[in-house]
Amino acid sequence: MKIRFNNPFAIEGNWYKGNLHTHTTNSDGSLSPINTVKQYKSAGYQFLAITDHCKLTKVEDDQGVLLINGEELHCGTTQANSCFHIVALNIKEQISYAGEQIVAFKKKWQDVDPQQIIDLIEFQGGEAILAHPYWSALTTNDIFSCFGYIGTEVFNTSCFHRWDKGYSMVYWDNLLSAKKNIFGFASDDAHNHSNDHCPNDACGAWIMVKSKNLDVNSIMNSIKQGLFYASWGPEIKNVKIEKDTIYVITSPVQSISFIGMNGTGEMFTALKKDSYSQVEYKIRGGEKYIRIQCMDLQGKMAWTNAIFLEKE
Fold this sequence. Notes:
- There is one protein chain.
- With 312 residues, the chain is an alpha+beta fold.
- The chain is 16% helix and 35% strand.
- The longest helix has 10 residues, at 33-42.
């Protein structure tokens, strides 16, 4: 059995916490860019991408937080007559809208193929993430119509708190089942919107990136290699693979799942004790891929990227 997995727990470096989907008053957020950075700094985040809608926001005072250029773009028309939302990371220039038209194509955004947006991001040396596919009402055909994006959001804080559409694991599994090495991101999509029955959507989710240094090139290189895990609660402390066994250590959780194709994999639920913090899983051989997913006692979750299994 050949195992293909860039294991962030097996390399040297430091763990850095960051959010890659954030809005400010430059689009539809409630806090100014500088106050947004201060907010994430206070919450212990070490890097942040401000991704205002159709605008590249730059902040002169980074407050000691590593800032990654970003923008969220809506484009195309889906099978449900919705649209794609694509997060652009580490771009050099704004992907411009003029009124309702995208300058690069002189078309209305509804008529722009999302693949053209992904290609523009790639042309600038950036990376694209498919945002909140459940909230966007994407279909399987929609997510398979594009290529070249690095990952998809498996959890979105804003979509969870406001509409209970925060989880998108099924979309991720559809892609992984087709042998597409797509990474899973947990993002806030922060707007700092809240009310008497909706919690604030900022500082709720994150990715933990393993990197030797805290700079844009190092963090982005680690992200591109999948050297991170995603969470909005639990900590994944270690993943080790020895021969045909996967060992996982986490903070105290209610369950740890090894998810593969169809009826493969296994879920370990703490029934005879309060919680789990360590389990092991023996690879059977028919899983095709395995991604590790855990849920804590408050129902919050964390995810590793996929481990692909190939017959030699």
